[in-house]
Recover the amino acids of this structure.
């Protein structure tokens, strides 16, 4: 075999090696081409396995008394509790549906006014209340309805394992199913799905507990308390002996 042939084969082998290295490096570069927002999304289970939401309709049917006596005590309690739930979990307007039929017109009007008064006292903003009149047949023809929609959490699907967990992930990204079980359990167990969307308002503080806590923080006993009197008496009794000891 001539030296020229040997050199030619060497050059060919070197070219193939160079091409393979270029392909390998090219593949590595493509593998690492993950932009920052995508990497942040893949590392955040709340975004990679986002919880979905669907709307559920809640309704309260308030039957109208035929004698025009208005709401009973139990009906008033039901309306108040329904409004409490509305303020806590609704994500839309409160609809007040009154029957548009002439049946029991005066009785319906009185019950409707009482319901509106309860809505105003509950602190529901006027712009959040939608009033409608509907035509209903049957036993529910003389009834006022309160309706709102609330979000219901929809858990993500888990159990996707497309990659070999034994291989080294050079991107240092969490595996596909990372955090999915936590997101799914949270969606299945949450009592009020609106808590996952917006923060809830704080309830009023207890003034009694605030006074006790503030007194402990300041370090002074309440005025007129037995603790303060005893402390003062003890301090007064101890002062003569201390003076004598100083002399």
């Amino acid at each position: 075999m001539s030296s020229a042939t040997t050199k030619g084969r060497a050059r060919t082998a070197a070219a193939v090696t160079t091409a393979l290295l270029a392909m390998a490096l090219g593949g590595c570069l493509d593998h690492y081409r993950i932009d920052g927002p995508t990497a942040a999304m893949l590392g955040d289970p709340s975004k990679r396995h986002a919880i979905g939401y669907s709307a559920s309709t809640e309704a309260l049917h308030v039957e109208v008394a035929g004698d025009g006596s208005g709401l009973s005590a139990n009906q008033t309690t039901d309306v108040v509790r329904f409004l409490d739930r509305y303020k806590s979990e609704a994500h839309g307007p409160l609809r007040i549906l009154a029957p548009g039929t002439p049946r029991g017109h005066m009785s319906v009007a009185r019950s409707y006014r009482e319901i509106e008064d309860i809505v105003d006292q509950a602190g529901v903003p006027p712009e959040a209340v939608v009033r409608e009149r509907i035509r209903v047949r049957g036993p529910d023809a003389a009834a006022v309805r309160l309706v709102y929609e609330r979000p219901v959490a929809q858990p993500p699907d888990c159990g996707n394992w497309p990659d070999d967990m034994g291989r080294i992930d050079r991107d240092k990204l969490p595996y596909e199913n990372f955090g999915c079980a936590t997101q799914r359990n949270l969606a299945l167990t949450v009592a009020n799905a609106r808590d996952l969307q917006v923060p809830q308002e704080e309830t009023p503080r207890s003034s009694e507990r605030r006074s006790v806590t503030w007194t402990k923080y300041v370090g002074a006993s309440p005025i007129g308390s037995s603790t303060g009197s005893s402390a003062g008496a003890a301090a007064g009794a101890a002062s003569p002996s201390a003076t004598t000891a100083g002399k």
Notes: The mean pLDDT is 77. The CA atoms of residues 124 and 185 lie 33 Å apart. The radius of gyration is 37 Å.
